[in-house]
Amino acid sequence: PFDARWQVHKTGQWVIGHHPAMTASQRQQLETILQQNRAAFAYSAKEMTGYTGGTVSFELYDTSKRMYQPPRRFHQQELEVGDEKVAELLQAGFIFEAPSTNPHAYNLTFPLKHDAQGGWTDRRCASDL
C-alpha cells in the first residue's frame, strides 16, 4: 500500500520513510536503534498493556444530557472495516459492549487514506466524541 517514499521494514514491521538527505549509514543506524529497542513497540493491540496505575475517575460530559447520533448508512466495505477494528479492540480489552439502554451512542467514521493513484491504502475507523 505504500509508494516509493516508504518502506515497511522486513523484520520489524516499522514504516520507514526514504528521506532524500538520509545516507545509507544513517538508515542503518536507525534500523539498528529500532532493532535494539524492539521491545518498546507493540505489534498488535493485545501487546499494548495500557495504564496499570491506580483507578482514576473523571467526567467527560454531562450525564444528564443524551449524546446520540441516529445510525448512518455505510458502504459494505466500511462495515467490514468497522467490524474488524471493533473486534480487535474488544479482544484486546480496550472497549466493551455497552448495554442497549445506554443513551450515549455515536457512529463510527471512516477517514480514508489514498495513494497517488487514488486507491484506498489504509483500513481505519474512528469515533467522534
What does this protein structure show overall?
23% of the residues lie in helices and 11% in strands. With 129 residues, it is α+β, with helices and mostly antiparallel strands. It starts with 5 loop residues before the first strand and ends with a strand. It contains 2 helices and 6 strands. The mean pLDDT is 80.
Task: Describe how the helices and strands are arranged.
Blueprint lengths: L5 E3 L6 E3 L6 H13 L30 E2 L7 H17 L11 E2 L2 E2 L16 E2 L2
Parallel strand pairs: 3-4
Antiparallel strand pairs: 1-2, 5-6
Annotation keywords:
129 residues; alpha+beta; two-stranded antiparallel sheet; two-stranded parallel ribbon; 6 strands; 23% helix; extended
Strand content: 5-15%
Measured distance between first and last alpha carbons: 29 Å
Average pLDDT number: 80
Radius of gyration: 20 Å
Largest sheet: 2 strands, antiparallel
Strand order of the largest sheet: 1-2
- Please give the oligomerization state of what you see: single chain
If helices are DSSP runs of H or I spanning 4 or more residues, what is the number of helices? 2
N-to-C SSE string, H for helix and E for strand: EEHEHEEE
Helix percent reads 10-25%
Summarize the entry for a quick read.
This protein has 129 residues and is α+β, with helices and mostly antiparallel strands.
